[in-house]
Amino acid sequence: MKRVVIFCGSSIGTENIFHREATQLGTMLAMEGITIVYGGAKVGLMGAVASGALQHGGTVIGVLPRFLQSKEIAHPGLSELILVESMHERKNKMNELCDSVIALPGGYGTMDEFFEMLTWAQLGLHQKPVALLNTARFYDPLITMVHSMMEKGFLKPVNRDMLIYSDNIDELLHKMRNYIPPVVEKWITKEKT
To answer: Fewest CB within 10 A of the end CB: N or C in the chain?
Structure first.
């Protein structure tokens, strides 16, 4: 892993551990020489990840739509800030710049970005590890839902297993480094007769 994209909330959440873990992740990635690509903001968990990395000499690349720059939320200390025209262009650029993906707690935007990357992996459009940092068991209901999708026949076990998760940063990074992408055969199925 050389460049990881981080998706996370532009809010800090209700528990101190969210901010603390976001900062710690940024710090650890910086200390390992891993470049962070993220949404470019100085607010919320986004700002915590970036600041944690920058305070430890890390490289942090922000990708921000121009309409958000006008709201003065861009992080002032970034290694590089790339301005784009739309949210779609932002996701495409972030995908181009990374070789792995981590989502921290967040809201609709985080889920949108995370699931688009996971869907692209399922379709074989990339072979990057896609992971959830399950801080304070935030993603437990989502992980349960993914298992339910498989049990109800909407996901194959191999696609369920593409989802990497842990509540421990070291363990998560270890799983990501050892990820082996599946052979994509999404539409090769046995139809019920």
So the answer is: C
